Amino acid sequence: LMIVPLFLCQQRNMKRNGSRSCVTRKTRFGSRERDWLKGDTQRGCVCLYGGTVDPQPPASGPQASSTPQTDLQLVLCSTNTTVEELCAQRDGQGLYVQLHGDLVRRLDSSERPLQMVYDYLASMGYTDPVRVQQEAANSDLSCLIRFYSERPVNADQQERTLLKGVFSVRKGKTQLHKWAERQVILCGTCLIVASVKDSLTGKMHILPLVGGKVEEVKRRQHCLMFSSAGSQAQTYFVNFDTLADYQRWHRQASKVVSQTVSLVDLSCYSLETVPEYLFYSQDITHLNLRHNFMSLQGPGGLLNLPRFSQLKSLNLSHNRLGVFPECVCEILTLTELNLSCNSLHTVPGQIGNLQSLQTLSLDGNHLSSLPEELGGLFQLNSLGLSFNNFSHIPAVLERLSAVDKLAMAGNRVESLELCTLVRMSHLKIIDLRLNRLRWVKSENLEAVNQVTQLDLRDNCLDSLDLSSVCNLETLHCQRNQLGTLTLGGFTLRMLHASSNRLTTVNIYPVPNQLTHMDLSQNLLEYLPDWVCDCRKIEMLDVTHNLLSELPSRLLNSLSLRKLLTGNNRLQRVPDLLDHVPLEALDLQHNKLAELPESLFYKALNLKYLNVSANALESIPPSSQSEESLSTLQEFYLTGNNLNENCGAVLVGHQNLRILHIAYNQLLSFPASKLSKLELLEELNLSGNKLKTIPSTVSSCKRLHTLIAHSNHITVFPEILNLPEIKLVDLSCNELTEIQLPDSLPPTLQELDLTGNSSLMLEHKTLNLFSHITTLKLDQKSTTTAADSLSSSSPWNHGYSEMSGQRNKLCVSVLAVDRFGDSVEACYGIFDGDRNEEVPRLLQCTMGDVLCEELQHSSIDSVYMCNTFLTSHRKLGMAGQKLGASALLCYIHRETSDPGGNFCLTVANVGTCQAVLCRNGRPVPLSKVYSLENCTEEMERVKLSKAIITEDNKVSGVTCCSRLLGCSYLSPWVLPKPWVHTEPLCSQDEFLILGNRALFERVSYQEAVCTVQAVQDPRAAAKKLCSLAQSYGCKDNIGAVVVSLHIGEDSCTCDPLVSTTESRGPPPATVPATVTPGPSDPVNLSSSSGIVTEFSSETSASEMGSEAGSTASDEHPSSGPVSRPERRCSLHPATTLCLFQRQPSCATFSSNQSDNGLDSDDEAPLEGVISNGSKLEVEVDIHCCAFQLRSGAPDSPKELDFEKRGSDYPNGKMRRQNSVVVSATNGCLLAVCGREIADLKKSPSTSSLFGKKLSNGSVVAPEDSHNLIEVALEAPKKKSGYFTAPAQQDPEDQLIVPPSLEQEVREQLRGQSPLVSDKNKPDLKWDTSRV
After folding, report:
1. Which of 61, 190, 604, 903 has the fewest Cβ atoms within 10 angstroms?
2. What whole-number distance in Å separates Cα of residue 463 and Cα of residue 482?
3. What is the DSSP string of 529-556?
4. Which distant-in-sequence residues (6+ apart) come within 8 Å of 241 by Cβ?
């Protein structure tokens, strides 16, 4: 099928989309394009971008928004259309493709662009041909794959590759030579000056710059002096025309002269050939051409590289060569050659010519054999063969006597013959991890004397006998299936054998050189006797075993410094008989009722002690006398049975920096004791029965973290005078008021006061909190019909996020108790590991995307998978280099029976996990996509020739094989999720969502037992995070707990009674039953456990009156309003729902009020911060769906109430479901509640569009449905964010296609009682704009 000769070459109206450089048109297709796509999924279109757009524009700021618009050609073609045909139709020279905003490659004439897009989408996870066709036609896809009609110009790349121009030049330092106009070139390591102006035909003067000097000439403007190194140094003066040229040349030349070797780095430049001028730099010894597309032919092709006469090191990795470039075998001076990741299948015999070669890297190819000629390279000492297709160790290695390391990780070796290693007596280090090893054979008793290090991680070994490897010093055999392990102990220094099935380890003789041993996550019931005899053992890890006792000799070892014995069955710890050098001791998750009496005054070097999750009722004294010599700095006592008497003992540890004593039985903490812990930096007292925190806490001048949630505290502690306080968590207490000092410490970053139902904050108090980055408060709302409906939901949730030791929170949570048009819910958690941008983008968009996908399919695996893939695309440039684990849970009724039972559909990528409690037992619902935990994913990544580093990370970046984002790691890391649907029943109690950090420390069973003991979901989530921290987690932690009440017992329907008009004052908010229209009031509702967070990005002291009126809880108008019939979530009334966004938080701000109040307000608004200039209310909201009644209004007064928007002060109405939301940092703003088109026309929201985040990323809207909007500042118009216009905009017309005209007319006639004539939308049957 040939290309259709249709090109849309006119200048398009572009707008920013998804991220910094993605652009899309307002109108993607016309009727001709749609007709072309119909009927044949092999048809499509390719968007061709011009070459004027820099593929990597500035990251942020005004420069990014000023990126010039480009011509965009929309080319209709088929999957069979080749590049040659496309170029012939448009008289082009060639096409280029760019993946993930990275390198740009010229396409071969036989390649088919549309088929490339289809294949790319299929590799992502799309399976439906129609959906693939639709996605391929979406210009948003350009952030993932983009085609150019000509090579894009990158000024920065040109500058670092080649600088040239005609400038005034003078040779030498004396005045003998005159200034003359000459062509000057800076390329590689040399300055090149032509002998004739504007001509390169004459003699070229070469000035080597490595080790030389480049200096500013102060006597002349924009002049530089270039000097070579050595006693016969030459000098050239170059006078530049402009300051920009001067700075550019000075910057690049300074890099060259500062080098100690003649190195030219041209990596990652999308080069096909090197600049021809580079061959003038004959002093080059190191040339880096990694990550390019080097070709053989051309003046600067690989065939010309032998022209470098002194070249020693050549890096050609990641160049898609396909075949070994034999021309490099002619560079006889080479000592280092890197040809990794080039899809090589064979190595030619000419490799034997490189007699000087010392390092050869062939990793990441398809090699299965090596030529015999390679054995003649006697100077070769390093040979990389990892991640190839070798099934055995190549015999040619026997001749390479200088090679001391066998690097063959990630191959297909199934058996290792130790006799083979005997013949290769020069090999000392063996790396065979990630192979398919099933056995290690030793057919004879011949000793293997030379091997000192052996790495057999991630194989399939069930037994291992290495007793014949006499001089083994280090062994790695983690993550096998070992039941037995036998080693020789003569020289053994380090043993790593975790994650196996070991019941014992046999080592003979006693390994007296052993210093580190890791036997964690095995089946050990006792420690072998030889462990106690090791004289130099310093670190022993036996966590997660079945140990019931510890040998006394072990604890009294004179060499042991770190002992980890957590998660065993220990009932006692042996007494210490003498002073020991122990520094760290982990005893968590055992059955200890007491600790040795002499622990602290015998282990005087002990700095870390974790005894959490035991049954301790007391702790031993710190010393035998009043004077304590304790050096303990970190003490974790969470989850025991300690009471307030332990305070007298803790005071002896005056060097304590971190103290966790959460979830014990403390009724109080002695004030006099707390004052003596002057070095305390972090204190966790959560989950006790404290009614107050002693005022002596003010003596802890270094305290920066106080966590005391889930107590009975009524008085706010005196901690805001502390100079270093950063985080205070007093949630889930009984606070009633807060007494503050005149000023707060500038270090305070987070204050959590949620769960204090009686707490009332004045405006003065809130103003003092204005600088805090994150302030969490309960949202105050009056009970309405909508709230009643929400409170009867068969589920409610709570969540917690903790940042750990990091300065930023990289975990985000999505929670929607009321989702969609029926009884549904949506919950999610997103973990960015070290980035916060991607989790927040997913938090704000993924609910919207799910809503959209539900309109297209009712098959759970389809709509969930497409939700993840679409969210991956919408990350834009933010998702090119950054990524996040994601988990999404969708509670809904069975598709086949809308009125039947509930189902839970779970989808996830990465390491976020979900577990369901059913009958008190955990039911895992997710799949952990990490290389260590998923064998099939490991094999897939290996087959795609990814380089997996020793810490099991893809390219050293991530341990996950599936993520949203990180598209530059495709096809190794994919966004396709695991999808599972679980029917819910009355035995299902709750659902737990958590990130990797949570479930690494808290097992499924412990998590279930923990939540069962706590009634409040928010307190349960808090407890899970606190436990993970006390168990040693230092990373970001996120947890969501969803309490389920599935079953008829939760029915809360009102009995059938006659409806009457309500008497007395009207309800405080507009009823949930409203009529659709541009001026409809919509209520701001949220699910249970919602908090208000104040962001310091936009100061709370700068708030205005619009937010005050929008967030007001008072309605001055009076009049009877009928109370709608209360229905439970199991038997909902028939409703019509408009899908709305599910953002995470909200910010309202303006600059028009001087006191934070509307002119008609008589009292400060609840939940509003103001100090006279700006007001901000940031609400963590997760539900924006509002209901429309299907019947007529109950009374004329109610109808009149719904029609009138001017009964409120200043004509403003509080909308509880239309929200402007911003992320916690205050820079991300989302708009919902009505169509994007209406918002653009509204004077109060028009300024929200086309803005960007302060960090440079943009999440742009679509015309099809509501998406995130971003703004650098809030609108300043006085009309308020959600004040509906008094009259409908003349241009606000509903355009209906002719094919839907009759259907829309029938629907409107059926809904006519809902819409008054005055507020009916203007319908225009117009086909010209469709």
Report:
1. 61
2. 5
3. HHHHH-SS--EEE--SS------HHHHT
4. 167, 222
In 961-1075, beta strands by DSSP E: 964-965, 978-983, 988-994, 1037-1044
Per DSSP (E only), the strands in 451-557 are 453-455, 463-466, 474-476, 484-488, 494-496, 506-508, 516-518, 539-541
Task: Give the residue among 684, 688, 727, 736 at the shortest CA–CA distance from 710.
Answer: 688
Region for residue 1274 given its phi and psi (left: phi exceeds 0; alpha: psi -120 to 50; beta: otherwise): beta
Between the CA atoms of 92, 93, 99 and 102, what dihedral angle is there, to the nearest 10 degrees? -120
Of the candidates 906, 903, 902, 901, the one whose C-alpha atom is nearest the C-alpha of residue 924 is 906
**Residue 829: partners with Cβ closer than 8 Å, 6 or more residues away:** 811, 812, 813, 814, 886, 887, 912, 993, 994, 995, 1038, 1039, 1040
Query: Which residues is 1220 bridged to in the sheet?
Result: 1231
* Residues in a beta bridge with 827: 815, 889
Strands 1229-1231 and 1293-1295: unpaired
Could you give the C-alpha distances from 134 to 569, 863, 879, 1079, 1119, in angstroms and in order?
58, 15, 21, 35, 52
> How many helices (DSSP H) and strands (DSSP E) are in the chain?
26, 64
On the question of pLDDT at 848 being above 50, the answer is yes
For residue 606, which of 617, 593, 619 has the smallest C-alpha distance?
Answer: 619
> Which residue type does 617 have?
E
d(Cα 517, Cα 538) in Å, to the nearest integer?
9
Q: Which residue has the tokens 């959906």?
A: 131
Give residues with Cβ within 8 angstroms of 887, minimum separation 6: 828, 829, 830, 906, 907, 908, 910, 912, 913, 914, 926, 993
CA atoms within 13 A on the CB side of 997: 30
pLDDT in tens, 403-434: 999 999 999 999 999 988 999 999 999 999 99
What is the C-alpha to C-alpha distance for residues 512 and 536, in angstroms, rounded to an integer? 6
Distance CA(691)–CA(116), nearest Å, equals 66
Q: What is the pLDDT of residues 623-679, one digit of tens each?
A: 888 788 899 999 999 999 999 899 889 989 999 999 999 999 999 988 888 888 999
Residues 393 and 385: their CA atoms lie apart, in Å, by 10
Q: Please report which helix (H) or strand (E) contains residue 650, including its range.
A: helix 646-650
Instruction: Give the highest mean pLDDT range of 517-521, 1064-1068, 1218-1222.
Output: 517-521
Q: Whole-angstrom Cα distance, residue 1222 to residue 1230?
A: 6
The two three-digit tokens of residue 866, written as one number: 């497409």
The more confident residue out of 1087 and 287 is 287
Here the tokens at position 62 are 């005004």
What single string gives the DSSP state of each residue in 580-626? Answer: ----EEE--SS--S---TTHHHH-TT--EEE--SS--S----S-SSS
**Residue 645 near residue 622 (C-beta atoms within 8 A):** no
| Six-digit token string for 1298 | 């002719």
- Residue range 733-780, pLDDT digits in tens: 999 988 888 888 889 999 999 999 988 888 888 888 888 888 998 876
Whether the bond between 509 and the residue before it is cis, its omega within 30 degrees of 0, is yes
What are the structure tokens assigned to 30, written together? 């016309």
Provide the mean pLDDT of the chain: 78
| Three-state secondary structure call for residue 671 | helix
Q: Which of 302 and 233 is assigned the larger pLDDT?
A: 302
Helix (H) or strand (E) holding 313: strand 313-315
How far is residue 1171 from each of residues 431, 475, 739, 1212, measured CA to CA in Å? 65, 65, 18, 22
Question: Considering just the CA atoms, what is the radius of gyration of the chain in Å?
Answer: 35
Percentages helix, strand, coil for the chain (3-state, rounded to 5) are 20, 20, 60
Nearest to 1043 by CA among 1076, 1014, 1002: 1014
Q: How many CB atoms lie within 10 A of CB 1046?
A: 20
Which residues 6+ apart lie within 8 Å of 936 measured at CB? Answer: none
